[in-house]
Design brief:
Distance between the termini: 33 Å
Helix content: under 10%
Radius of gyration: 20 Å
CATH topology: Porin
Largest sheet: 16 strands, antiparallel, barrel
Order of helices and strands: HHEEEEEEEEEEEEEEEEE
Strand content: over 45%
Structural class: mainly beta
Number of domains: 1
Length: 332
C-alpha cells in the first residue's frame, strides 16, 4: 500500500468508528438507547491484537496464518440532558500469510485486509419522553481501502425509542447499508423490537432485526445472549471475582466481508465465517483496563461471491485453531 494511502487509512480510522456488519451497528446504537438518560457518554478507546497460528488450507498445498490489529475510538462532541452529538472510529488490519487461491476466480488470497470507517451520530430526547436519532457511517473494507468508490460502503441507522411505562419501550429502526443486500437488492430495512426491563437484573429486547437478553441471577454473575439475522449469535457468562477483576466464557458465530480491489464482478465480496469458544479475564482500573482472551476457532471458511447463498462456490476452508487476544481499554 502506498505510504500516502496508509496514512489516510490510519488517520480516518483514528478519527471515527463504524461497526460491521450493519446489524452490529444497530446493536451499538441499541445499547445506548436502552438507557433513556442523556448527557452521560464518556470518551473511550481500545486496542486489540489477535493471533491465529498456522493451519492447513483444505484441498490446497498451503497454510494460512493471520494476525489482526484493531483500534476503536468513541468521543462525545456535545451533550446535555436533551441532545447528544458523538463521533467514533475504527481501523482493522489483518496481516495474512498464505498462498491460497480462490478455486473458481483463480485469484490469490490477499496478504492484507483493512476495514477503516467513520461515523457521526445524533440523539435527541423530546418533551413527550420519546428519543430519536441517527448515525451515518462511511468506510472501506478491502485489501486496498479507498482504492475507489467500489471498495467503500455507506450506512445509515435511524432509531426511535417510545417509552411504555417506567421501564419498557418500543424501538423502531430503519437501517440502510450499501454493502448489504436484501432479496438481491440494496434496500432500507425497517425494524421493530420491544424492550422489556422488569428489574435491574433482567432485560430483553425481542424483535427484528436484533434480539438480546441480559440476566443477572445474582450480583456477581451476568448472562448475555444476542442474535442478529441470519447467522450471527453471541453469548457470554461474566463472573465478577472482585471489583476490578472479571472472568468470562462465551460462544460466537460471526461473519465479516471485504472487497478485493482487482475483482472482476464489482458486486462480489470476500466473506469470512467463524465459530469460536473462548474464555478470558479482564482487569479494570479507573481509566484503563486490560483483557486477555484465549479460545478455539472452528468452522472457518472464506468465499467470494455476492451473498451467503454463494458459500459453496469459490471457497477456501481453513483448519480449526486455538487463538489468543490481548486488549487494552481506555476511558477518559
Amino acid at each position: 500500500m502506498p505510504p500516502a494511502r496508509l496514512v489516510a487509512v490510519l488517520v480516518l480510522g483514528a478519527a471515527l468508528l463504524a461497526i460491521r456488519p450493519v446489524t452490529a451497528a444497530a446493536q451499538s446504537e441499541l445499547q445506548a438507547w436502552l438507557n433513556p438518560e442523556m448527557g452521560k457518554q464518556i470518551p473511550r478507546a481500545d486496542y486489540r491484537y489477535t493471533f491465529y497460528p498456522e493451519r492447513k488450507v483444505q484441498d490446497q498445498e498451503t497454510h494460512f496464518t493471520m494476525t489482526e490489529q484493531r483500534v476503536t475510538l468513541f468521543a462525545p462532541l456535545y451533550q446535555d440532558s436533551t441532545d447528544e452529538f458523538a463521533f467514533a472510529a475504527k481501523t482493522l488490519y489483518q496481516d495474512i500469510d498464505t498462498r491460497a487461491r480462490f478455486p473458481e476466480a483463480g485469484g490469490r488470497f490477499p496478504s492484507e485486509l483493512w476495514d477503516a470507517s467513520a461515523s457521526v451520530s445524533y440523539r435527541h430526547k423530546f418533551d413527550n419522553g420519546w428519543t430519536g436519532g441517527v448515525a451515518l457511517t462511511v468506510g472501506s473494507a478491502s485489501d486496498e481501502p479507498f482504492n475507489s468508490v467500489d471498495e467503500m460502503y455507506f450506512r445509515l441507522v435511524a432509531l426511535v425509542r417510545v417509552p411504555q411505562g417506567e421501564r419498557n419501550s418500543w424501538l423502531f429502526s430503519l437501517i440502510y447499508a450499501s454493502d448489504e443486500e436484501v432479496f438481491g437488492r440494496t434496500l432500507p430495512v425497517p425494524g421493530i423490537a420491544y424492550a422489556w426491563v422488569p428489574s435491574d437484573r433482567f432485560r430483553a429486547v425481542i424483535g427484528f432485526p436484533f434480539s438480546m437478553i441480559q440476566y443477572k441471577p445474582f450480583e456477581s454473575l451476568t448472562l448475555d445472549a444476542e442474535y442478529f439475522p441470519i447467522y450471527t449469535v453471541r453469548s457470554r457468562a461474566t463472573w465478577e471475582i472482585f471489583r476490578p477483576l472479571r472472568a468470562y466464557v462465551g460462544f460466537q458465530w460471526d461473519s465479516d466481508h471485504f472487497y478485493r480491489a482487482d475483482r472482476e464482478d464489482k458486486d462480489d465480496k470476500i466473506f469470512y465465517r467463524e465459530m469460536r469458544l473462548y474464555a478470558g479475564i479482564r482487569f479494570d482500573l479507573r481509566h484503563i483496563g486490560f483483557e486477555v482472551t484465549g479460545g478455539y476457532a472452528f468452522n472457518r471458511f472464506y468465499f467470494e461471491g455476492e451473498g451467503y447463498s454463494d458459500r459453496h462456490d469459490n471457497r477456501i476452508d481453513v483448519g480449526s485453531t486455538p487463538f489468543i487476544v490481548g486488549k487494552v481499554n481506555l476511558r477518559f
